[in-house]
Amino acid sequence: MRASVSPLEQTLHAARALVLADLVAGDVAEADVVSLVENSVVERRWWVEQWPEGAEYVAGLVAQDVQDALLERYGRWPLCPVCGSGDPHALDVEPELGADPHWVCHKAGVKVAAVGSLGSAAGGTTPS
To answer: How far is CA 108 from the centre of its chain?
Structure first.
């Protein structure tokens, strides 16, 4: 008999999967980077336990947490796949606190992809 997974755990697993998919799409899913995702999930578990109504915001928050942690350690991520010229710049998560988070390029003023779907936005290229 399988134990049922709580809605909180389902939300956290989904957020982890979405952010990991974007990291894999950007070819930056190294072990230490995956640890950043895990750290964020642990922090957000506490956050959602305090504010259950915020569960639908977790994916965007985990994406922002990982983006901030990567900026401190490695540099900007994810780089914008839309703007072909000018300085490389990172995408932002919008809404900052809301459901259905997307990666957005403020320079071009466009939604690039839903969080978890960067692979398709980058043309679905696979590393050779």
So the answer is: 20
